[in-house]
């Protein structure tokens, strides 16, 4: 490792946007593959290597494979434990992990036992003295529609009250792409005329749009669940404007408003967004979770240097460098900081400030923020001469 990499590795860091199943490392993947050889899944099918780029569609296919490999309580416990330890080795001092509770009839996994398995892994790591404070955000997959979103919020609410502060909020994620009419060959009259929010598939024409695109998992259908979450004290981190064409949804979601935004790639006017959207984000001071490699490899951003981090950072807006899916995108948080620094010419002082300011954006309370700030203060003299 060169001197430069050592600096980023030693830098104390906060990770706020990490999907559990997207964060599974090559080593852990090997273990899972050995547990389930009959699936015939190979390691290179679950990761996007250096220099490779895939469409969003192809990236979301990868998650389907990973989910086949991670389908028991034991698997969830294994991946959560390994992911937490890996972040700790990378000097991440505070981690908010997020994951979508899944039910697997074949293995007896329930959404509740899924969340319990993650929480047990967090508690075990703490007991074992792993030097990292880990919290959990329960994820809503937008594709599953209104009812599942509401169930997920209720589950999160239960665990918020029973987990001793480990469950702090909700993540809204899942494939944000629209389907075109080409995917929709035989709409029924009923489909054309009505949409119910219990149906995850919604015709945009119902929103007064002349477009005949269908939108799967529109945020409008998820608003009641998100409002309930907010009202019961769960924090909200929402994937927003990850692809273009989500302007109407972003407007709606920003009115909640969320506590943090995942990506926000297409919010600003230079990317087809709008000034009122930017003004709203700035007015509410909503931090952006920035995932450089994920956006470049998933082709929603053409190159590192054209990443929207530049726009928001220059505005002085709170931006937190994150990994998104460190396993799938073959990265780690140190590498993401290093990429941000080299792409946007950030000095070591600026990098330090970036990591320190991330502490202000965590969902845990004031006492935890103070503890983390103290840690940063102790480490600083040894790192920045
Ligand atoms: C495909 C791509 C470019 C990924 C990055 N952008 C993403 N956008 C939206 N949802 C995501 C993304 N990455 C992971 N997820 C969500 O996280 C899930 C995997 O982690 P988990 O099973 O919730 O533990 C995926 O099924 C998906 O619902
Ligand atoms: Zn994400």
From TrEMBL:
Keyword terms, alphabetized: Hydrolase, Metal-binding, Nucleotide metabolism, Zinc
SUPFAM superfamilies in the record, alphabetically? Answer: Metallo-dependent hydrolases (SSF51556)
**Adenosine deaminase domain ranges (all copies):** 12-178, 224-375
So what does this thing catalyse? N(6)-methyl-AMP + H2O + H(+) = IMP + methylamine
| Pfam families in alphabetical order | A_deaminase (PF00962)
The protein's required cofactors: Zn(2+)
- Hey, which family's this protein in? Belongs to the metallo-dependent hydrolases superfamily. Adenosine and AMP deaminases family.
Report the protein name in the record. Adenosine deaminase domain-containing protein
User: Which organism was this protein described from?
Assistant: Ataeniobius toweri
């Amino acid at each position: 490792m060169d001197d430069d990499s050592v600096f980023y590795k030693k830098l104390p860091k906060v990770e706020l946007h990490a999907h559990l199943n997207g964060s599974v490392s090559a080593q852990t993947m090997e273990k899972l593959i050995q547990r389930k050889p009959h699936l015939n899944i190979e390691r290179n099918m679950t990761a996007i290597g250096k220099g490779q780029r895939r469409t969003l569609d192809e990236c979301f296919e990868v998650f389907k494979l990973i989910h086949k490999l991670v389908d028991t309580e034991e698997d969830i416990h294994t991946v959560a434990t390994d992911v937490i330890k890996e972040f700790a080795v990378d000097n991440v001092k505070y981690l908010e992990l997020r994951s979508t509770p899944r039910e697997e009839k074949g293995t007896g996994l329930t959404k509740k036992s899924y969340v319990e398995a993650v929480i047990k892994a967090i508690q075990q790591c703490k007991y074992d003295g792993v030097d990292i404070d880990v919290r959990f955000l329960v994820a809503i997959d937008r594709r599953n529609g209104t009812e599942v979103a509401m169930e997920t919020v209720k589950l999160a609410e239960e665990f918020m009250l029973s987990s001793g502060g480990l469950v702090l909020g909700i993540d809204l994620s899942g494939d944000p792409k629209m389907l075109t009419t080409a995917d929709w060959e035989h709409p029924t009259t009923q489909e054309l005329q009505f949409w119910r929010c219990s149906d995850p598939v919604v015709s945009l024409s119902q929103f007064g749009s002349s477009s005949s695109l269908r939108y799967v998992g529109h945020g409008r259908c998820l608003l009641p669940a998100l409002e309930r979450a907010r009202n019961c004290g769960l924090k909200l981190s929402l994937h927003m404007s990850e692809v273009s064409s989500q302007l109407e949804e972003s407007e709606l979601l920003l009115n909640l408003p969320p506590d943090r935004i995942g990506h926000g790639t297409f919010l600003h006017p230079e990317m087809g967004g709008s000034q009122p959207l930017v003004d709203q984000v700035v007015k509410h001071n909503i931090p952006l979770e920035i995932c450089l490699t994920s956006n470049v490899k998933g082709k929603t951003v053409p190159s590192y240097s054209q990443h929207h981090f530049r726009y928001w950072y220059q505005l002085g807006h709170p931006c937190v460098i994150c990994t998104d899916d460190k396993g799938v995108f073959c990265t780690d948080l140190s590498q993401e900081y290093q990429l941000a620094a080299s792409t946007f010419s950030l000095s070591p002082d600026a990098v330090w400030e970036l990591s320190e300011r991330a502490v202000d954006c965590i969902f845990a309370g004031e006492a935890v923020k103070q503890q983390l700030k103290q840690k940063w203060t102790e480490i600083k003299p040894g790192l920045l001469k």
